[in-house]
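[job 0412] stage=complex_fold ligand=L-homoserine status=START
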Amino acid sequence: MTDDRRLRVALLGAGSVGSQVAALLLQHADELAARAGAELELVGIAVRDPDAPRDTDLPRALLTTDAEPLILGSDIVIELMGGIEPARAMLLQALTAGADVVTGNKALIATHGPELFEAADRVGASVHYEAAVAGAIPIVRPLRDSLAGDRVQRILAIVNGTTNYILDRMDSEGADYADVLADAQRLGYAEADPTADVEAFDAAQKAAILASLAFHTTVPLDAVHREGITAIDAQMMTAARDAGYVIKLLAVCERLDDDGAETISVRVHPALVHRDHPLASVRGANNAVFVQAEAAGDLMFYGAGAGGIQTASAVLGDVVSAARRHIAGGVGVGESTRANLPIAPFGHAVTRYQVTLEVDDRPGVLATIAGILADGGVSIATAQQTIIGGSDGADLASSRALLVIGTHTARERDLAATVERLGASDAVERVLSVLRVEGDGR
Ligand code: HSE
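[job 0412] stage=complex_fold status=DONE, emitting structure tokens
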């Protein structure tokens, strides 16, 4: 210990992350005190049921169902309950009472972050949330502090471990989505109701937080375009692999030149990533955040995106920061939303696409398709045809082909209108898939 100062720390929630945070606070008390400059006294842990089974043995005397005295009597309040209420009300109460707060609650920060930041500003306290995005990976502080002097252009991020695990196994084993999802549920990677992960609600919350930090702009959750992975099948995976790509669920946050005006675009969807790109090597349930900044160039932050003890590392780092601020006094680290750039509608996003069509293999089909793309303002970069029904020399009338078209960059709204016209054309039997291609050096 550096001196005899003591800060009172309250913990709200003792699930898999909370119980590890409590255990580490108790086990490493001396080291944490030396780093923080004050003893961090865990004064209590508010839980719903003190007798519920937990991953770690915690002193029974610290557990309580009465959160209010803890919140009002502490210098630092750690919230790891999840959900919006009562977490929001409790953190507002803590901030109003002058406590610094630490939370791992991505849903709360993505939906009520500005309200919490304003409450902190009013009393000069601080809100820390490193654990809310990508578990153990330090990314909130790098974006907020380390890159504060740079200009982030784009973030491509794998921020959901469950979907990365599913897509990785589909890619490496040629397995079906439903089979891998069932396995992931058995192994505890996916919830019994996997909606939040597979429909990308979880990733969209993290994307909103990353974009807010990267572009110094408040990004409301409903401004994030969201598509999940449930439409990805084994055939799409195989086609991607054959073309040198892997399919990943990506959060894409980027600046756009929107007809001369600077805007930002924030979207989460499955995307083709070239196997040479660093994000292609992110396996299993790991996360990674690939940042492209004007001066720093390309940076990649990689590691465990979830897990009790891993996420507890991020929480404890925040507790030490909160303690240092509390001791130093003055105003806490505020959120920078000074840029407040306009958020472009999804239709304004610009990227490259791979469109896979099943077509009749007869004269004029390719010309018709090329004409529809040209009329839509979508430029073809590559086209590859494979005969799938009938064969050379067989009955041409029954012959079918798979046509994979890679585009140059196009606007989302132009591409969507073009795909609709392709689907309605006699030349096209079926539109099999439309995938965005990301990380190709644009
Ligand atoms: N369910 C998340 C994931 C972890 O699969 O990455 C918590 O954000």
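Residues 349-438 form a domain with the Alpha-Beta Plaits fold (CATH 3.30.70.260).
[job 0412] exit 0
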